[in-house]
Write a structure and sequence with these properties.
Oligomer: single chain
Strand content: 5-15%
Strand order of the largest sheet: 2-1-3-14-6
Number of helices: 29
Structural class: alpha/beta
Number of domains: 3
CATH architecture of the largest domain: 3-Layer(aba) Sandwich
CATH superfamily of the largest domain: Periplasmic binding protein-like II
Shape: globular
Helix content: 40-55%
Radius of gyration: 28 Å
CATH topology of the largest domain: D-Maltodextrin-Binding Protein, domain 2
CATH class of the largest domain: Alpha Beta
Distance between the termini: 49 Å
C-alpha cells in the first residue's frame, strides 16, 4: 500500500469522525415539487423530534446517476431517498425492507391498492412507501362544450352531441372541431425533457389492451419481444401527432400544458391530475369555475397480438394509465439511523399532512390515499362542487378499473425511456418520419395503411455480428464495460484526494504544518481530481453516445484521461516518502493532535460561536464527497491499479472484499445496456436468455 493512499485514507476517516452529521440525510429531485414538501415537513419533523433533516436536491436528470453511484461504490447516497416508483427495480437490491409494523399500519393500508400493491413492492418484498399517486386524465372547458352555438355546429358536422370524449376518435374529432373554430383543440406534452413519452403511452394503452391477451402493452410477456412497432402503437403515434397539430405553437412540457390550459388557451388538455388543482386555482386560473374532467378515452378496436389482427369490442373500453406511477420513499441498507429514517417517511405520509400536500398544486404530489378520494367536502371547497365531483369521479373510475395499465417497470428502465424519448424527439422534429408497413397483422378494420413506427433499433448504435450483436450495441463487448468500470474507479480515487485537500484547506493555516512535507503529493492528487472531473463528464458522454462516431470519440477522450491519470499516479508515488505501514497509525495520531490543537486555537482566538458554526457548515458541505469514499474502497482501487502485493494479509483481504461494489457496477452496466432499448422486434424465442429477455413484463407488479 503506497504511503499517499494511507494518508488519504487517514485524512478521510479523521475528517469524517470530526464532521459526522447528526442530521437525517434526504436525497430527491430539485425544484418546488417533491423537494418542497420534503424540506417543509423536514423542518416540522425536526421541531417535533429533535432530529434535524437535511434535504439535498439534485436535478432530475442527475438524480438516478447520483443514487446509483452511491450504491455501486458501496456507500449509501443518503438515509432517505425520494424517487420515482419506476426506479424501484434498479435500486431494490440496495434497500431495507419496510418494517412490518409500518406495512400493517393504517398509514400504509389506507393507500389505494393501485399504488400500494403495485408501486411499493418488488418481487414480493415491501421496499417503499408511496407518497404520490400519478395517472393521466383529461380536462376540458365546460363553457366551450356547453355553448349552444358550438353544440349545434358540432351536431350538424358530426351527427353527435358535443360532450367529453369517450373514445380516442371522439377526442380527435372534438379537438379538430375547436381548432377549426379558432381555438386550440387540445394540449399535450411534446417538449424535450418535458415528460412527453407518457402522453404517447396514454394514447397506446387502450389500443394494446386486448381483453383476452393482457400484458402486451410494452413487451410480449412470454418472449419479452418489444411490442412498440405493432399496429396498435402505430395508431397511437398518429393519434398523438394529430392531437399536437390542433394546438400550433411551441412544444410544451407537462407543467406548460397545465398552466396554458389554466390560462384558457385550449378546449381540452391531457395531463397528470395536477391539472385539477392548477386549473381551479383562483389565484392563477382564468377558467377556475368553467373546468370539467374526463377519464382517458377508450376504443372499441384493439390489436390482437396473437392473431395479428384488429378485433372489435362490443362497446368502447377505456384503459386508464398510471403514467410514471408517482414518487416513493425508501431507506438504503447502511443508513445511519434506519428508525429515524422510517419515522421521517411516516411523518411525510401522515394522512392529514398528505391530504394538504395533494390539494396544493405546487407540491408535485397527487391523490393516492383512499380517504383523499372520499373527501368530497375538502375538494369542493378547493375546486367548487361540480369540478370536484368530476375530478373525484375520474380518479375513482381510473383507479378501480381492472384493466388499468401500469407503467413500464423493469431493471434498466431509465435507459429504455431515454432511448424511446430520443426516437420520439426525432419524429417530432421531422428528422425522421414513420415508415410504411405495419407488419404481418395488417389493418383488417379498414384501408388504413398509414406509416408505421420506425422499426430500427433506437438510438442507432454500432452492433456486433451474430446473436450477441444486441448485447454489444453500446460497449462493443466486455472491453467497453471494463473501460467504464476503470473510469468510475479512477474517479472515486481522484475525488478522495480532492475532498481531502479541500477539507484541509478549510481548516486553516495550522493544518498546513500537518501536510507540509506532502505538498508535491497533494498537488498531484489535485491534478488527479481534475482528471476525475473530466472523466465524470466523459462517462456521461459515453453513456449518451448515439452514433458510432460519437462513441469512438468518447472512448478516445477517456483513453487520454486514463493515460494522464497513470502519469499522475507515478508522480504521487515519486513524491511520497517510503514509510512503513506502521506509520499510518503515527500519522493518524499526529493529524488528530494537530486538529485538536487547531480547534483550541480557534476557540481562543476567534471566540465566536457563529464562526465555529460556519466552519462546521463548511465541513458538512463536503460530506457528499467524503462519506461515499471509505478507506477499504480506496485501498482496493490502489491495489488493483498499481498491481502491488500488500504485506499485511488482513489489509489484502479487505482490499479484495472492497472490489464487490465494482463488480456490482459491472453487473448493473451489463444488465442496463445489454440489449437495444425498445429497438426492433426479435423473432419469438430468440435471445430469450439474454438481458431483459429473462424478465417478466410486469415481474414486480405484485
Amino acid at each position: 500500500m503506497s504511503p499517499v493512499t494511507a494518508r488519504l485514507v487517514t485524512i478521510v476517516i479523521l475528517a469524517l469522525s470530526l464532521t459526522r452529521a447528526e442530521a437525517l440525510e434526504v436525497l430527491t429531485r430539485d425544484g418546488g415539487p417533491i423537494a418542497g414538501p420534503a424540506i417543509a415537513h423536514g423542518a416540522e419533523f425536526a421541531r417535533e423530534t429533535g432530529v434535524a433533516v437535511h434535504v439535498t436536491p439534485r436535478p432530475f436528470d442527475a438524480l438516478y446517476g447520483a443514487v446509483m453511484m452511491g450504491f455501486v461504490t458501496g456507500s449509501p447516497p443518503a438515509d432517505v431517498l425520494i424517487l420515482p416508483a419506476d426506479w424501484l427495480p434498479d435500486v431494490a437490491p440496495y434497500l431495507m425492507p419496510v418494517p412490518d409494523d409500518l406495512v400493517q399500519s393504517p398509514l400504509v393500508q389506507g393507500i389505494h391498492p393501485a399504488y400500494r400493491d403495485r408501486q411499493m413492492r418488488w418481487r414480493g418484498q415491501w421496499l417503499a412507501v408511496t407518497l404520490d399517486g400519478d395517472l393521466h386524465m383529461g380536462a376540458y372547458r365546460r363553457d366551450l362544450f356547453e355553448d349552444r352555438a358550438a353544440q349545434a355546429a358540432y351536431r350538424a358536422q358530426t351527427g353527435r352531441a358535443l360532450e367529453p370524449p369517450r373514445t380516442w376518435q371522439d377526442y380527435a374529432r372534438i379537438a379538430a372541431f375547436f381548432r377549426a373554430r379558432g381555438v386550440a383543440g387540445t394540449l399535450e406534452a411534446s417538449a424535450e425533457n418535458g415528460q412527453r413519452l407518457w402522453s404517447l403511452f396514454s394514447h397506446a394503452a387502450a389500443y394494446t389492451a386486448h381483453p383476452d391477451h393482457p400484458g402486451h402493452f410494452f413487451f410480449d410477456p412470454d418472449t419479452m419481444a418489444p411490442e412498440i412497432d405493432n399496429p396498435a402503437w402505430v395508431r397511437a403515434l398518429h393519434d398523438y401527432l394529430d392531437a399536437l397539430a390542433t394546438a400550433p405553437g411551441p412544444a410544451l412540457p407537462s407543467h406548460g400544458v397545465r398552466t396554458e390550459f389554466a390560462a384558457g388557451a385550449a378546449a381540452m388538455a391531457l395531463d397528470w391530475s395536477d391539472i385539477g388543482t392548477v386549473a381551479t386555482d383562483p389565484a392563477s386560473s382564468k377558467i377556475r369555475d368553467r373546468v370539467g374532467f374526463f377519464a382517458l378515452p377508450g376504443t372499441d378496436q384493439v390489436w390482437n397480438p396473437v392473431a395479428k389482427r384488429w378485433d372489435r369490442l362490443a362497446a368502447p373500453r377505456p384503459v386508464p394509465f398510471l403514467a410514471f406511477g408517482g414518487w416513493i420513499a425508501v431507506v438504503p441498507r447502511g443508513a445511519a439511523d434506519p428508525k429515524a429514517a422510517w419515522d421521517y417517511i411516516a411523518f411525510l405520509a401522515d394522512p392529514a399532512r398528505a391530504t394538504r400536500d395533494v390539494m396544493t398544486g405546487a407540491s408535485g404530489f397527487n391523490p393516492y390515499r383512499l380517504s383523499q378520494l372520499d373527501d368530497t367536502a375538502g375538494w369542493s371547497t378547493l375546486m367548487g362542487a361540480q369540478a370536484a365531483a368530476d375530478y373525484l369521479s375520474v380518479l375513482r373510475e381510473s383507479l378501480s378499473a381492472p384493466q388499468t395499465a401500469p407503467d413500464l417497470r423493469l431493471p434498466g428502465y431509465p435507459a429504455y425511456m431515454a432511448a424511446l424519448d430520443a426516437r420520439l424527439g426525432r419524429v417530432l422534429s421531422g428528422e425522421i418520419t414513420p415508415r410504411g408497413g405495419s407488419g404481418g397483422g395488417g389493418d383488417r378494420l379498414g384501408p388504413d395503411h398509414r406509416p408505421a413506427w420506425p422499426r430500427q433499433p433506437a438510438p442507432p448504435l454500432p452492433r456486433g455480428d451474430g446473436a450477441g450483436g444486441g448485447a454489444m450495441s453500446l460497449w462493443r463487448g466486455i472491453q467497453g464495460r471494463l473501460l467504464l468500470i476503470v473510469a468510475l474507479s479512477t474517479l472515486a480515487m481522484a475525488l478522495a484526494g480532492f475532498a481531502a485537500i479541500r477539507a484541509l484547506d478549510q481548516i486553516g493555516e495550522a493544518a498546513e504544518t500537518v501536510t507540509g512535507r506532502d505538498v508535491p503529493a497533494m498537488a498531484a492528487a489535485l491534478r488527479l481530481a481534475r482528471i476525475g472531473d473530466r472523466l465524470q463528464s466523459r462517462g456521461a458522454s459515453l453513456m449518451a453516445a448515439s452514433t458510432a462516431a460519437a462513441l469512438s470519440e468518447a472512448q478516445r477522450a477517456i483513453d487520454a484521461d486514463l493515460a494522464a491519470f497513470a502519469e499522475q499516479m507515478g508522480a504521487l508515488r515519486a513524491a511520497a516518502p517510503t514509510d512503513s505501514p506502521d506509520q499510518i497509525a503515527t500519522l493518524s495520531a499526529e493529524l488528530a493532535a494537530r486538529l485538536r490543537a487547531l480547534s483550541t486555537d480557534l476557540d481562543r482566538l476567534r471566540g465566536l460561536a457563529t464562526l465555529r458554526a460556519a466552519e462546521r457548515a463548511k465541513m458538512l458541505a463536503q460530506q457528499d464527497f467524503l462519506r461515499q469514499l471509505l478507506g477499504p474502497s480506496i485501498l482496493a482501487v490502489e491495489a488493483i491499479t498499481a498491481g502491488e502485493t500488500l504485506p499485511d494479509p488482513e489489509i489484502y483481504r479487505t482490499a479484495v472484499r472492497s472490489q464487490a461494489p465494482l463488480l456490482a457496477a459491472e453487473r448493473l452496466t451489463d444488465r442496463a445496456m445489454s440489449e437495444p432499448a425498445l429497438g426492433g422486434r426479435r423473432p419469438r424465442g430468440a435471445g430469450a436468455a439474454a438481458g431483459p429477455g429473462r424478465l417478466s413484463a410486469h415481474a414486480g407488479a405484485a
